[in-house]
Amino acid sequence: MKVAVFSSKPYDKAFLTSANQGRHELVFHETALNTTSAILAQDCTAVCCFVNDQLGADVLEILAKQGVKLIAMRCAGYNQVDLNAARAQGITLTRVPEYSPHAIAEHTLALILMLNRQLHRAHYRVHENDYSLDGLLGFDLFGKTVGVIGTGKIGATFARIMLGLGCRVIAYDPFPDEALQTAGVDYVALDALWSQSDIISLHCPLTPDNHHLINADALLKMKPGVMLINTGRGGLLDTKAVIAGLKSRQVGYLGLDVYEEESDLFFEDHSSQLLQDDVFARLLTFPNVVITGHQAFFTREALAAIADTTLKNLTGFEQQDRTLMHLIESP
Ligand code: NAI
To answer: Gene3D superfamilies recorded for this chain (predicted)?
Structure first.
């Protein structure tokens, strides 16, 4: 089967080619999928897409006219896909619902440790022959209270890591996980989580209901100097409110792997351009803010799992074997 792979980076090409083992004809395109680039899928039965590819009704119509029958998302989320238009065009959709919760949970811990022990600042000091410790004072994680919002695959993995470090872990999730409770996690109401946590970490999906879950009101209920970590989705956190919190020192530390307006920034090298996003630019001025560009998923194990499931989805479609496929069901 001929497959156009959009938004493909060298690492995508390496992992997908290895998982493919020559079975399908994979044609890699660096460009993102949109109405202009959709022509590249001519003669292809399938396209393979990532988080910033456009899959609105206009693009789906062009793909369908060119004979595309399958869209294989190589990620879990599919909020940018017009599901009704895909169904109307007779296009099948698949995704990778799970790859490595450890990748994201461990990156979350990396952000916490980096902020707490000021590793970003310590690294540069040593390179400047400056071994002074002033300003690098951290705190023991042991005994601190960590609030986890969303205890699905990633949140549960993260909660167990923090229990292992001797933290008290409290959580908020509309569907509590009994095994986690047995392991020592206490489920509490959101207000209790805000007021009791030394560290708060977001691991729930972004929905219309929880947009700006962390806002000015929530910040007021938190412990002064709280550490906030967001590896979930940018829209869960009101960035401007958190900047005000950083300025007043209500927020003591901020670690982000996702950002509300990340689609204009992340995954690309903009180092020769001027940064146009003033809110993001302000975040970069704080010594107690660490940002990574949506890289929490980026481990060898996660990329191998993404490639493996994507290839199963392609082969399952070719063989019309639904047991191999992870279908995105129509609404
Ligand atoms: P999951 O579906 O296994 O778990 C999500 C959990 O959140 C569920 O237990 C659900 O009940 C809970 N939940 C839903 N709405 C909630 C709310 N308003 N408040 C509290 N809990 C709520 O999902 P998984 O695999 O654990 O992923 C979680 C999120 O992590 C994803 O939705 C995605 O946004 C983000 N993610 C980030 C990545 C990165 O590279 N930074 C990579 C993969 C996922």
So the answer is: NAD(P)-binding Rossmann-like Domain (3.40.50.720)
